[in-house]
Structure formats: structure tokens, C-alpha cells
Amino acid sequence: MAMFRFFIKSKMSALPVLLLALALGATTRWKRPEPRTHVVEIRHMKFIPSEITIAKGDKVVWVNKDFFAHDVTGKDDSWSSKPFQQNESWSMVITEDLSYYCNLHKVMKGTIRIK
Ligand SMILES: [Cu+2]
Questions:
Q1: Could you tell me the sign of the dihedral formed by the alpha carbons of 114, 108, 60, 39, in that order?
Q2: In this predicted model, what pLDDT tens digit does every residue of 31-90 receive, in sequence order?
Q3: CA-CA distance, 70 to 62, in Å (whole number)?
Q4: How far apart are the CA of 82 and the centre of ligand 1, in A?
Q5: Would you call 92 exposed, middle or buried from its count of C-beta atoms within 10 A (0-12, 13-18, 19+)?
Q6: Angle at 59 between CA 54 and CA 65, to 5 degrees
Q7: CB–CB of 112/60 below 8 Å?
Q8: Contacts of 46 (CB under 8 A, 6+ apart)
Q9: Which H helix or E strand runs over 21?
Q10: CATH 3.30.420.10 fits 37-114, yes or no
Q11: Measured between alpha carbons, how far is residue 42 from residues 32, 66, 76, 91 in Å?
Q12: How far, in Å, is the centroid of ligand 1 from the Cα of 96?
């Protein structure tokens, strides 16, 4: 009888442990995916693509494919890359919606949106 009672007891206490394990497993599975890297090419005086939508914390890499320097500057001038040359790149981790342009060629514009 004592054996039987022990069996019931241990069965009961296994349930919360099982639920906890399931909950932990679910938390791990549903946590944010790893940050991704997105490439924006600079080619023929354009940012390509000029508009992208990404996840918060993703990185954007601008790669200059023109024969001359460009930069990436925030629309409000609060941040800027240095000018970078052909086949050079510059990157930034994005945490908010941004509009930017090239301060060397002000017609060049781009937008990043957080989804
Ligand atoms: Cu430029």
C-alpha cells in the first residue's frame, strides 16, 4: 500500500515538471530568430533596393559597386558613414525606421522600415 501511494505521488509530481519542460521548449522555439544581414548595392548612382523592410536588430551592408565614392547619411544628418570606394562596404545594425541619402550625391535616397 505504501508502494502504491508512493507511485501515485511521483506520478503527480511529474506533471508540473512535464509542463515546465514543455513551456521551456516552447519558449526556446518561439524566441526571436537570429539577426539577418541584408545587402544594399550602390550601383549607377542608386541604392538597390532603395526600400527594404527588415526585422529590428538586423544588419544592413551597403556595398559600393560604382567607380567612385559614395556615403550613407541619415536624412536628419545625425549619422553618416565615411565615403567609401568601389567594392568597399559599410554596415549598420538597424533598430528603427530610417531614411537616408548619399551626402556626395544628394539625389541618391533610400528607406529602411522595421516590420
Ligand atoms: Cu553617392
A1: positive
A2: 778 999 999 999 999 999 999 999 999 999 999 999 999 999 999 999 999 999 999 999
A3: 10
A4: 11
A5: middle
A6: 100
A7: yes
A8: 108
A9: helix 2-30
A10: no
A11: 30, 7, 21, 13
A12: 23
How far away, in angstroms, is 85 Cα from ligand 1 center? 10
Q: Calculate how far, in angstroms, residue 55's C-alpha sits from the geometric centre of ligand 1.
A: 26
Which residues have C-beta under 5 Å from ligand 1, the single-atom ion? Answer: 70, 102, 104-105, 108
- Tell me 66's DSSP state: S
Grid cell at residue 72: 550613407
Does position 7 have pLDDT exceeding 50, yes or no? no
**What pTM does this model have?**
0.73
Q: Residue 47 is placed in which grid cell?
A: 541604392
Residue 115, all three cell numbers: 516590420
Comparing CA positions, the residue from 32, 86, 95 lying closest to residue 60 is 95
* The C-alpha cell that represents 82 in the structure block: 565615411
Rounded to whole angstroms, how far apart are CA atoms 29 and 27? Answer: 5
Tell me, in angstroms, the distance from the centre of ligand 1 to residue 103's CA: 7
